[in-house]
Design a protein that fits this description.
Strand content: 25-35%
Helix content: 25-40%
Bound molecules: adenine
Order of helices and strands: EHEEEHEEEHEHEHEH
């Protein structure tokens, strides 16, 4: 019963790879998958790739070819909710696709044939990730605010303040006020829903999806997000090993 750890960024995966026991790499679907153990737990590590389709392929392969039975996803996101600042962390409760629009055939944001706009994360796994996030940040000596709520995904890097505000406004008016925006989570959540796989996700806020987002993003990834992800996932896997969740 392997737990899959999906990283959006190579910098986030690097620390995990260094800790992986009995590492074995397999190439599949043009991606590298690393099997091994972390804190005595069988894991498989992968990079999500960027965008909804690429992430969906990675997750499907994790489940079909590597026997992933739970999945945790880390990455960075643009903060678009009020008070969601660079350096904060968002643990997802659920995901919406901000670029899904099959209206007038289906209501705006509804995923055709699913009859729903949002895919929810697993409550128990998310609670464990929230605990690990708080503990990991404490261990790093950081007082970052941890948010818990909706994340919006779409195939677009949002890098203009006006666009970020508009996105937040229209989603909120439709009843889906997002804390953050990124490019993969909703796809991962949908595939996990299809397979009945418990799923949890955390995103470190790298930018405010505004006009300086493209400058803030790479700097933040290298300097901060990788440290956050490693500290949080290390705590998460240690707790999982102890509680045998
Ligand atoms: N990931 C990190 N920042 C982002 C942004 N501004 N838009 C989309 N995805 C992101």
């Amino acid at each position: 019963m392997a737990i899959a750890i999906l990283s959006a960024l190579a910098e986030e995966q690097q620390g995990l790879l260094e800790r992986l026991r009995q590492p074995r790499r397999t190439e599949r679907a043009g991606r590298s998958f690393w099997q091994g153990e972390l804190h005595g737990q069988p894991v498989v590590l992968a990079l999500s790739r960027i965008g909804k389709v690429a992430a969906a392929t990675t997750v499907t392969t994790l489940i079909e070819a590597f026997g992933a039975r739970q999945l945790v996803f880390t990455g960075v996101a643009g903060g678009i909710g009020p008070g969601v600042q660079v350096g904060d962390v968002v643990v997802a409760t659920d995901f919406v696709q901000h670029d899904m629009d099959a209206s007038p055939l289906f209501p705006r944001y509804q995923i055709p044939l699913y009859g729903r706009e949002r895919f929810v994360c697993d409550v128990r796994l998310s609670a464990a990730l929230l605990d690990a996030t708080r503990a990991g940040l404490r261990e790093l000596g950081l007082q970052a605010t941890v948010h818990h709520g909706l994340i919006a995904s779409g195939d677009r890097f949002v890098s203009a303040a006006a666009e970020a505000m508009q996105l937040h406004k229209v989603l909120s008016e439709a009843g889906h006020p997002p804390l953050a925006v990124e490019m993969e989570g909703a796809a991962v959540a949908q595939v996990c829903h299809d397979y009945g796989i418990p799923f949890a996700a955390m995103r470190t806020i790298s930018d405010r999806a505004d006009d300086t987002a493209h400058v803030d993003f790479p700097k933040f990834v290298n300097e901060v997000a990788s440290r956050y992800a490693l500290a949080i996932l290390d705590d998460f896997m240690r707790d999982l090993g102890q509680s045998r969740v």
